[in-house]
Amino acid sequence: QVQLVESGGGSVQAGGSLRLSCVASGVTTRLAWFRQAPGKEREGVARILTNSGNIRYADSVKDRFTISQDNAKNTVYLQMNSLKPEDTAMYYCAAASTGLTGVSTLSPLAYNYWGQGTQVTVSS
Q1: How far is residue 81 from each of residues 14, 31, 33, 41, 87, measured CA to CA in Å?
Q2: Distance between CA 25 and CA 15 in Å, rounded?
Q3: Which residues, at least 6 apart from 41, have a Cβ–Cβ distance to it below 8 Å?
Q4: Which residues are within 8 A (CB) of 99 and not within 5 positions of it... i.e. 6 or more apart?
Q5: List of residues 6+ apart from 114 with CB closer than 8 A
Q6: Predicted confidence (pLDDT) per residue in 85-113, tens digit
Q7: Contact 100, 87 (CB under 8 A)
Q8: Which of 44, 62, 64, 97 is exposed most, by the fewest CB atoms within 10 A?
């Protein structure tokens, strides 16, 4: 079993920054951040493989968002810079405890544990 606890959401003006944190308990193989805006599907934002540190980003956030992990603290972070109103969404931390599958690691299907979500609101 893996438990995930997110923090760090909030409201910011366009161009601002926020950092999300997610503390994970248990053994994981990959950690990711997803987001879901009202009326839209859940979208993978970034993921990190916990052993290798390999990282992948969605095109929509590349060069603006940075995912990182602190293994000593069992924590994964999402640093979000140059925020845009279209980044407004509920952000979720996700974890997997199994190996890689044929599913994209930015797909919700690749994760079996989810946090409760933290709201990010970007105003213009």
Answers
A1: 10, 20, 15, 23, 11
A2: 33
A3: none
A4: 29
A5: 4, 92, 93, 94, 95
A6: 999 999 999 999 988 778 899 999 999 99
A7: no
A8: 62
73 pLDDT band, cuts 50/70/90, is confident
pLDDT given at position 17 = 98
Structure tokens at 113: 């544990």
- The mean pLDDT value for 60-72 works out to 95
**Residue 119 exposure: Cα atoms within 13 Å on the Cβ side:** 6
Q: CA-based angle 2:104:58, to the nearest 5?
A: 95
User: At residue 18, what is the residue type?
Assistant: L
| Triad 92, 7, 75: Cα angle to 5° | 85
pLDDT tens-digit map of 13-23? 999 999 999 99
